[in-house]
Design brief:
This protein is mostly beta strands. The chain is built from one helix and nine strands. It has a nine-stranded antiparallel beta sheet, with no helix packed on it. Strand 6 and strand 7 form a beta hairpin.
Length: 145
C-alpha cells in the first residue's frame, strides 16, 4: 500500500504474469496450439494475452469466444467491454483487426469476436481458417473477482 504523498512504482500496480490454457468456445484444437498469459493490474483489472494457431485437424463450428482465466468474472454492469483481437490468414498473408466483447452484463467469457462489419468471426469469417492461421486477443478487462 502507498501512503499519501508516496510514489507509486510500476511494480506496485502490476502482478506477475500467470500462464493459463485458453478455452476458446466453438473451437476444436486438434493438432493446433494455444497459449495464454494474464496478470493483475491493480485490484479489479487484468491484462490478458491469448492465442490459438490452427492445425490441419483444428475446426471452428460457430461464432468464436474465449473464457476468462482462473474463474475470473468480467464486470459488464455499467459499460460494455471490448478487447482488441487480430486474426492472421497465413496463406493470404493478411491480418484482420477485430474485437472480443464481454458478455452482456459481465460474466466469464469474451463471447464474441467480430471485425469492422460487426459479423461474428466463425469458420469462414473473416476468412476460411486453415493450417498456420492464428487468432490473438490482447488487452485489459475490468473484473469483479
Amino acid at each position: 500500500m502507498v501512503s499519501a504523498g508516496g510514489i507509486i512504482q510500476a511494480g506496485d500496480a502490476f502482478g506477475d504474469w500467470i500462464s493459463f490454457t485458453p478455452s476458446f468456445t466453438n473451437f476444436t484444437l486438434g493438432n493446433g496450439t494455444r497459449g495464454g498469459l494474464y496478470r493483475r493490474v491493480g485490484e479489479f483489472t487484468i491484462e490478458i494475452v491469448a492465442q490459438f494457431t490452427f492445425g490441419s485437424s483444428s475446426s471452428i463450428s460457430a461464432g468464436l469466444g474465449l473464457t476468462l482465466p482462473a474463474s475470473l468474472s468480467g464486470d459488464g454492469a455499467t459499460t460494455t467491454q471490448i478487447v482488441p483481437a487480430m486474426a492472421w490468414d497465413n496463406s493470404g498473408a493478411a491480418g484482420y483487426s477485430g474485437h472480443a466483447k464481454l458478455q452482456s452484463g459481465g460474466g466469464t467469457a469474451l463471447d464474441r469476436f467480430f471485425g469492422p462489419n460487426t459479423t461474428q468471426w466463425n469458420g469462414t469469417v473473416p476468412f476460411t481458417w486453415a493450417t498456420s492461421d492464428f487468432l490473438v486477443v490482447q488487452g485489459m478487462v475490468k473484473v469483479t473477482t
